[in-house]
Specification:
Elements (H helix, E strand, L loop, with lengths): L1 H7 L11 H5 L3 E9 L4 E6 L22 E5 L18 H12 L3 E9 L5 E3 L7 H13 L14 H9 L8
Parallel strand pairs: 3-5
Antiparallel strand pairs: 1-2, 1-4, 2-3, 4-5
C-alpha cells in the first residue's frame, strides 16, 4: 500500500518534481488546467487520487505558478504571441483562444514523455483525436484554405519566427 501511495497518490507539484522514472514509464497524470500560455502549452494542477480537483471546480486561486506543472503539447508549434517587446505572429490570438476554450478549467489526462529545453514537461498526445486525425485535419485545412492557410501559405512558421528573434540584431558601426 505504501508503494501505491508513494507512486500514484502523491501530488507532483511542478515540472521539477517529475523524475526520470516517471518519464521513462511514460506515466499518465490527471489534473486541472489552470492557465494556457501560447497555444501549445498550459499549466496543470496535478490531482492524484479521488477528490483532489473538487476545490478548483468553480474558481482557481490567483497565482498557481509554483504549484503547477508546465506542460508542452507534443507535435504542436502554435503561432507565437507577443512577448518581450516582440510582435505576435498572425493567428496567435485565435489559436490561444481556441486552446483556452477547450482546456482551461477542465480535467485532463496527460502522458508525460520528456522535458524540453525550457524545463517544461512534454505531453504525448494530440488532444482527443490522436496524431493521424490531427494531421488529417491540418491537411484538410491547408487544401480548403481555412484558418491560417487562407491565403495559401504561412509567411513565417513559429520555428522561423523564434530563429529570427534569437539572432542578435545587426550592429550599427560606422
Amino acid at each position: 500500500m505504501e508503494i501505491v501511495q508513494r507512486q500514484w497518490l502523491r501530488r507532483i507539484r511542478t515540472a521539477d518534481w517529475v523524475t526520470p522514472d516517471i518519464l521513462t514509464r511514460r506515466r499518465w497524470v490527471k489534473g486541472i488546467v489552470t492557465s494556457v500560455g501560447d497555444a501549445d502549452n498550459f499549466r496543470l494542477y496535478h490531482t492524484p487520487g479521488i477528490g483532489w480537483g473538487l476545490r478548483f471546480r468553480r474558481r482557481f486561486p490567483v497565482d498557481l505558478k509554483d504549484q503547477t506543472i508546465h506542460v508542452r503539447i507534443a507535435g504542436v508549434d502554435a503561432p507565437e504571441g507577443g512577448h518581450f517587446g516582440r510582435p505576435s505572429q498572425p493567428h496567435a490570438e485565435e489559436s490561444l483562444l481556441w486552446l483556452k476554450n477547450r482546456l482551461e478549467g477542465r480535467l485532463v489526462y496527460c502522458q508525460l514523455i520528456r522535458k524540453d529545453q525550457y524545463g517544461r514537461v512534454v505531453r504525448a498526445e494530440y488532444g482527443p483525436w490522436g496524431r493521424e486525425a490531427f494531421l488529417r485535419i491540418e491537411a484538410k485545412a491547408r487544401t480548403t484554405r481555412r484558418g491560417m492557410w487562407k491565403y495559401g501559405c504561412v509567411d513565417e512558421t513559429p520555428a522561423e519566427y523564434k530563429r529570427r528573434y534569437a539572432m542578435p540584431p545587426p550592429s550599427t558601426k560606422q
